[in-house]
Amino acid sequence: MSNPVVIEAGGEVSYKNSAAAALPEAAIAGAVEIFQNSGAESASAMKIESGDTAYMVHACTVSDTETAYVFSACEPETALRENAVVSAVAEAIRDPLAVLSLSANFIIPTAERTGDERTVQYAAMMNKSLYRLRRLANHLNVFTCAEDSDFGMVKTVFDLACLCEETTLAVRSLLGATEQGIALRLCGDSVMVRGDRVMLRRMLLTIISNSVVFAAGEDMRICISVKKSRNMALITVTDNGEGICLADKTNVWSHYLDRREFGDTYRGAGFGLPMAYVVARAHGGGAVLESRPGLGTSVIISLPVSDEKAAELKSDSLEYGLCAEYLTELADILPPERFLEEYLD
Known about the structure:
Strand content: 15-25%
CATH class of the largest domain: Alpha Beta
Number of helices: 9
Number of strands: 12
Mean pLDDT: 83
Number of domains: 3
CATH topology of the largest domain: Heat Shock Protein 90
CATH architecture of the largest domain: 2-Layer Sandwich
Low-confidence stretches: 257-266, 315-322
């Protein structure tokens, strides 16, 4: 049986194949809205939820005025398996993580006092692994709480452009990257949103971390841009990596990712982009992945803009390169020496 296919032109559905007849109108409208809000121009992948059903959607422009959407429903059994695995892992790592944290608080300063280079090196490697586990725990917490659309978020009105600027500067500092390596492009105006700053910053750091992993090594070029489009704020993170082929695009939104499908180039648990999707959705937005093999990848997050005024434009005061949150969310890509006491104080 063929997948449901819908063609949209000028905001109206101009064609449906027979398999698309059973698609909920809300699912079609949601896919069209998220793709149009993203400003994506080439073949893209997204995840849409309508009622109790989730759909992976491929979108591509077929003419100057028409966009085709190909839907595939996520099997309910798969969703149940994903939730069961995530909940089990989240519960299993809680106690070991607490023990490791207590141990690290003793071991790191003790190792540094010895002055032995090899001992310090192993202590740094151990602590980096601890922070990687903390990052995993952060992501698992998002998934296990996702059934509650608000999952404990503390929402305030703030300038998203400011948050992205501060985050970019911090990442550059920690990675020792240049402005050319990690570029920032702002629209020049404030982009006000109502959201959880901590959660959105974690989401952005996760996307940047993924981009660094897949970017072109020493020739890494990553661009973070923020702008308004219609009534949405758009964060776009683009890298100059190898890109993702069509068959793999929808898989990136699943938090039960089979790493073997991505070959030897894939690193990590595969929770990063699914976590970004969950956070964007909890803020009333969406996530789109735009990628072509050999031409790099863009992840586009859309969030509703706010007409309210913020009490303060700046987000939380942070010393760039010294914040534990940054070390946690960037733990996969930072060298072990970043996890010694001088960076943790």
